[in-house]
Amino acid sequence: MGQIRALAVAGSGGYVKPVMSERARIFSGMQPTGGLHVGNYSGALKGWVNLLDQGTYEALFCVVDAHAVTIEYDVKQMPSRILETAIAYIAAGLDPERCTIFIQSDVPEHMELAWYLGSVTPMGDLGRMTQFKEKSEQHQQNVNAGIFTYPILMAADVLLYKATVVPVGDDQVQHLELAREICRKFNARYGAVFPEPKPLLSSTPRILGIDGKSKMSKSRGNAIELDDEPRVVEKKLKSAFTDPLKVRLGDPGRPEICNIFTMHTAFTAPPALAEIDATCRSGALGCGECKMRLRDAIVRELTPFRQKSAELRKDPRRVLNVLQDGAERAHGIARSTLREVHHAMGLTSRSLG
Ligand code: TRP
Hints:
The chain contains 13 helices and seven strands. It folds into two domains: 4-206 and 316-352, HUPs (Rossmann fold, 3-Layer(aba) Sandwich), CATH 3.40.50.620; 230-312, Tyrosyl-Transfer RNA Synthetase (Orthogonal Bundle). The relative contact order is 0.14. The strands form three sheets. Strands 3-4-5 form a three-stranded parallel sheet. It has a two-stranded antiparallel ribbon with strand order 1-2. The chain is mainly alpha-helical. It starts with a strand and ends in an 8-residue tail after the last helix. Helix 4 crosses helix 7 and helix 10 packs across helix 12. It binds tryptophan (TRP).
């Protein structure tokens, strides 16, 4: 932290000139799932925007498309999934003037570094990853090496930029712990090239799907999507799961086990939230009314997001420019790190003679 390191900034004509930055660097990324949902928004995007607005960090936000190929997908849909994710980043308030937004596969050094890191990563550690176990269970017909080595690519994403702060949800903490382990192993073997990255946990609790059972996810069909029209939000909320012991108006409820209340914590301001908490418990507030207040809060917050997304969708050139600039900037840093890595590992012609 606080160490001075070269920050590559895209200059004119593709020339990349190093300048000094003392700000700690943050890196985070999301898979291009396409239409994002309120869980992605409150658990990740909004937190990223807050971190950026603090101005303390130099930030990179990546659309991790290379991670997404580990699960079978429709090739025709991938470009729009990537574009939509980038649009969501910008529409949520990640200002491309103040951070670097790019697509992982535009910077091939991610994959190269992952290969080197793979040779200091124990197989046993990869096999213990909960997400690997879950995914290989879900996709039994395609348990490929990519879903096994996924955390190595994730470690490479972060280490490539020497990021020290990594905002993630709780489901990614285990991967980050492994990234730290990989970092220590690499440094022990080849010299201190990488600073250790630390996870920064999202402060919003995890939002479940409207079925109230599993994590909100587009593929599970239980998501309120960021692009849902207000009446769709309403319809989904009406069918959403609440405290099963609160059946009719007057029944006392338990906000701490209610997913609707969890969503309120992400979208409703503290005084109104405290009132909901109290009146749900006393029984004065029924689930129907509580859900409509949540609809209003979600719609209020997401309306500007939807407007901005619609604008960007009409002007994809603008988004592509952001992504190209971002890739150029990221690539400058990535090249410089890999030069160090090659040197530390005794690879390439530059180390001969
Ligand atoms: N694995 C993360 C997820 O599924 C996405 C990701 C890939 C990521 N590389 C990263 C997150 C690097 C933080 C840092 O949510």
